[in-house]
């Protein structure tokens, strides 16, 4: 996890990771705390994790990005290192209105990391560059 999240969110994600490492499942208490801290993003993010919609894309140089298949069927690129997602909800509710800590896609990335439920995909440097540039072209 990164220090871009408030300490309480960081601590909760660490506790979830520890619980999943020890028992391979969470508790209702984690669910209620997730909803309290992350609000309406919590349940859809858990759904994305359950559907195994999060893929960690890695290049030989160690660069990584995450791709999340959203509930609409669109693929979004997320960067946990700088706490950013390419979805419209991130731009609007997180950046413009500051109504949320993060979107469901970024939360799904953090949760899939904590729960050990992240898909892994190794790609070449060129393929990773194409993935990143494809996002810019979609926005432009």
From TrEMBL:
The keyword Signal does not apply. One of its GO terms (biological process) is double-strand break repair via homologous recombination. Coiled coil: none annotated. Keywords: Metal-binding, Zinc, Zinc-finger. This is ZSWM7 protein. Residues 76-114 form the SWIM-type domain. PANTHER family: ZINC FINGER SWIM DOMAIN-CONTAINING PROTEIN 7 (PTHR28498). Signal peptide: none annotated. It holds the Pfam family SWIM. One of its GO terms (molecular function) is zinc ion binding. The keyword Zinc-finger applies. GO terms for cellular component: Shu complex. PROSITE patterns: ZF_SWIM.
């Amino acid at each position: 996890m990164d220090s871009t999240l408030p300490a309480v969110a960081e601590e909760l994600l660490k506790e979830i990771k520890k619980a999943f490492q020890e028992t391979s499942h969470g508790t209702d208490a984690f669910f209620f705390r997730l909803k309290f801290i992350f609000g309406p993003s919590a349940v859809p993010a858990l759904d994305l994790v359950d559907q195994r919609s999060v893929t960690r894309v890695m290049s030989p140089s160690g660069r990584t990005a995450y791709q999340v298949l959203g509930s609409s069927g669109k693929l979004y690129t997320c960067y946990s290192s700088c706490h950013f997602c390419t979805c419209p909800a991130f731009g609007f509710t997180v950046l413009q209105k500051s109504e949320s800590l993060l979107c469901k896609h970024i939360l799904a990335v953090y949760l899939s990391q904590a729960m050990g439920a992240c898909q892994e995909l190794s790609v070449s440097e060129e393929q990773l560059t194409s993935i990143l540039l494809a996002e810019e072209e979609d926005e432009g």
